[in-house]
Specification:
The protein is an alpha/beta fold. 40% of the residues lie in helices and 19% in strands. The protein has two domains: 2-129, Up-down Bundle (Four Helix Bundle (Hemerythrin (Met), subunit A)), CATH 1.20.120; 138-363, Translation initiation factor eif-2b, domain 2 (Rossmann fold, 3-Layer(aba) Sandwich), CATH 3.40.50.10470. It is built from 13 helices and 18 strands. Strands 8-7-6-9-12-17-18 form a seven-stranded mixed beta sheet, sandwiched between helices. Strands 13-10-11-16 form a four-stranded mixed beta sheet, with helices on one face. Helix 6 (178-186) links the parallel strand 6 (158-162) and strand 7. The radius of gyration is 20 Å and the shape is globular.
Length: 364
């Protein structure tokens, strides 16, 4: 996707220097910054402290982190250290472990002298695959928007509500939940996106920034407005992303997603989840009971980052002194509340049978 008319990916290896570059998302939407990450420790911090975020992007970043480590120390011990350090950064998003396991399976059979080159090629392959997957998700999700558009008076937009940032900067490109929106907009379909602010880190502001850069009509709303809009017929469908999906179709996404699904069910609004297949954890069946929920620092709830009237970006405290903050980062939406799953292979029911129909080689 583009920023100021120029195409970017969220992570890439510089062709001239060989260094890994990322868009540093801590400063968005107020400042657009790129940084270089060179060491295992820097990759660890970038993932843990959310310089990069979003399950697919975390997985891609882990792949590049392994490659950087193999350049420095291609021994078995060097790989194991990198695996353990990176795997400990974010416990909920399954793409992290998926990417690390893929690197392990590909690199460990090789000699130490072969590992660095192979690791760089694999990291690039993971990134390129993510772009292709997300583009396909958008093409399948486009059909859902087209079907709704066909029932509306000419020129009336399809109104989509989304939660958190499942956009291109949460992936390598295109995004998951946003990909159908971009495809619809580019196809000339009128759409309007309701963007939840998504406290406590206000990732909805990143979605609004993305959509604005691409020219997609949207409105940034507080988290608690979604149910009201649904009650008054102003939401045609909900599309969110997911950080981990169970083999039965439960979805784990940013905190507050479950509440949107409940409101959608109560108001007869279709609730879809866009997911690349690496976010499916085939070893887990009961999402509520089995998926570990990351508890992030309390300061994310007690403080907020913003820009003042003078243009300065700073963090301010919004809570009383001494009040503790609780910060579960994700919740689980049971499959019974999910209308369908949008994958790179098509749309299916949120069920074991639905997923097995699209991914029989995994479900078996």
């Amino acid at each position: 996707m583009k920023v100021n008319g120029e195409h970017y990916r969220s992570i890439w290896r510089d062709g001239a220097t060989g260094e890994v570059r990322i868009i540093d998302q801590r400063w968005l939407p107020h400042q657009f910054k790129m940084v270089t990450i060179r060491t295992l420790e820097e990759f660890e911090v970038a993932i843990r402290d959310m310089w990069v975020r979003g399950a697919p992007l975390i997985g891609a970043t882990a792949g590049f982190g392994i490659a950087e480590q193999m350049e420095r120390d291609p021994s078995n011990a060097g790989f194991q250290t990198a695996y353990e350090v990176l795997n400990a950064t974010r416990p909920t998003a399954i793409n992290l472990r998926w990417a690390l396991d893929r690197c392990r399976d590909a690199l460990m059979p090789l000699s130490e002298g072969e590992r660095a080159e192979a690791a760089w090629a694999l990291a690039q392959e993971i990134s390129d695959e993510d772009v292709g997957i997300n583009k396909s998700i958008g093409q399948h999700g486009l059909k859902l928007i087209q079907d709704i558009a066909a029932t509306k008076p000419a020129g009336e937009p399809v109104r989509v509500l989304t939660h958190c940032n499942a956009g291109w900067i949460a992936t390598v490109d295109w995004g998951t939940a946003t990909s159908p929106m971009y495809h619809a907009h580019d196809a000339g379909l009128p759409v309007h996106i309701w963007v939840d602010e998504t406290r406590p880190r206000n990732q909805g502001a990143l979605t609004s920034w993305e959509l604005g850069e691409h020219g997609v009509p949207h409105t940034y709303i507080v988290d608690n407005a979604g149910g009201h809009l649904m009650q008054h017929g102003q939401v045609d469908l909900v599309i969110t992303g997911t950080d981990r999906t169970t083999a039965q179709g439960d979805v784990c996404n940013k905190i507050g997603t479950y509440l949107k699904a409940l409101a959608a069910r109560d108001n007869g609004v279709p609730f879809y989840v866009a997911l690349p297949s690496p976010t499916i954890d085939w070893t887990v069946r009961d999402g509520v009971a089995e998926i570990p929920i990351e508890e992030r620092p309390a300061q994310e709830t007690t403080h907020v980052l913003g820009r003042d009237a003078a243009g300065a970006v700073s963090t301010v405290q919004v809570s009383p002194d001494g009040s503790p903050g609780g910060n579960p980062a994700f919740d689980v939406t049971p499959n019974r509340l999910v209308t369908g799953l949008i994958t790179e292979r098509g749309v299916c029911a949120a069920s074991a049978e639905g997923l097995a129909g699209l991914f029989p080689e995994k479900a078996g």
